[in-house]
Amino acid sequence: MGRVVSGGIRVPRLTCLVSDRDDLTLLTAMADVGVDGFQVRAKKLSGRLLTALAERVVAAVRPAGATVVVNDRLDVALAAGADGVHLGASDLAVAAARRIAPGLVIGSTCRSRADVVAAARDGADYAGIGPVFATASKDGLPDPLGPDAIAPAVGVLPLVAIGGIDAGRVGEVLAAGAHGVAVIGGIWRHPDPVAAAEEIVSQIGG
């Protein structure tokens, strides 16, 4: 489904964010219905516990060919055998991460075309753009960009839209030019997370 980047790995069309609070027993089923990316994000865990969590995610979804990235922590991504790392503005610089781990997928949080251009220059494989819509999944976020912010950033790196996205909003952000979406509440807050994931996969199509 995704676009091939570092080491032959693909930038996913649908990334499900995973924390230690989520039901990890559902991950294999999600991968089997077409979720092709998982991002491990659990900011309050120690390095050891985060590594253990990432290892569980990798073991659950890699047989289906899904890509696993770890939020913020390049060291954990390497230790857990993940496919990549996603870096925010206050994390390790993209250029430094690329020097340390030339074969990993590296994503960068961006809010504008200028951010995406800078991320590409420094060696990022994709840009996470958002929050597109208001979301309660993370505290302290900046104001939502809105879907109209996606189109001006298209054409530099694959854009993965995040923030308040569910099955009902996928079409809008893809039509604006996003390569894919990253989803938290739209999957985990649904009564049937696997069914929610499958519906988003169907909205994305091939």
UniProtKB/TrEMBL annotation:
Coiled coil: none
Single GO MF descriptor: thiamine-phosphate diphosphorylase activity
Chain residues that bind 4-amino-2-methyl-5-(diphosphooxymethyl)pyrimidine: 39-43, 71, 109, 138
Cofactor mode of binding and number, as noted: Binds 1 Mg(2+) ion per subunit.
Catalytic activity annotation: 2-[(2R,5Z)-2-carboxy-4-methylthiazol-5(2H)-ylidene]ethyl phosphate + 4-amino-2-methyl-5-(diphosphooxymethyl)pyrimidine + 2 H(+) = thiamine phosphate + CO2 + diphosphate; 2-(2-carboxy-4-methylthiazol-5-yl)ethyl phosphate + 4-amino-2-methyl-5-(diphosphooxymethyl)pyrimidine + 2 H(+) = thiamine phosphate + CO2 + diphosphate; 4-methyl-5-(2-phosphooxyethyl)-thiazole + 4-amino-2-methyl-5-(diphosphooxymethyl)pyrimidine + H(+) = thiamine phosphate + diphosphate
Group of enzyme by EC: transferase
Gene Ontology CC annotations of this record: cytoplasm
InterPro entries according to UniProt: Aldolase_TIM, ThiamineP_synth_sf, ThiamineP_synth_TenI, TMP_synthase
Enzyme Commission identifier(s): 2.5.1.3
UniProt key word Glycoprotein: no
Taxonomy, superkingdom: Bacteria
Pfam families for the chain: TMP-TENI
Keyword hit for Zinc: no
Residues that, per the record, bind Mg(2+): 72, 91
Residues the record lists as binding 2-[(2R,5Z)-2-carboxy-4-methylthiazol-5(2H)-ylidene]ethyl phosphate: 135-137, 164
Required co-factors: Mg(2+)
Keyword line: Magnesium, Metal-binding, Thiamine biosynthesis, Transferase
Record domain Thiamine phosphate synthase/TenI: where: 20-187
GO biological process: one example: thiamine biosynthetic process
Pathway recorded for this protein: Cofactor biosynthesis; thiamine diphosphate biosynthesis; thiamine phosphate from 4-amino-2-methyl-5-diphosphomethylpyrimidine and 4-methyl-5-(2-phosphoethyl)-thiazole: step 1/1
Function noted in UniProt: Condenses 4-methyl-5-(beta-hydroxyethyl)thiazole monophosphate (THZ-P) and 2-methyl-4-amino-5-hydroxymethyl pyrimidine pyrophosphate (HMP-PP) to form thiamine monophosphate (TMP).
Similarity section: Belongs to the thiamine-phosphate synthase family.
PANTHER family the UniProt entry points to: THIAMINE-PHOSPHATE PYROPHOSPHORYLASE (PTHR20857), THIAMINE-PHOSPHATE SYNTHASE (PTHR20857:SF15)
Protein's UniProt name: Thiamine-phosphate synthase
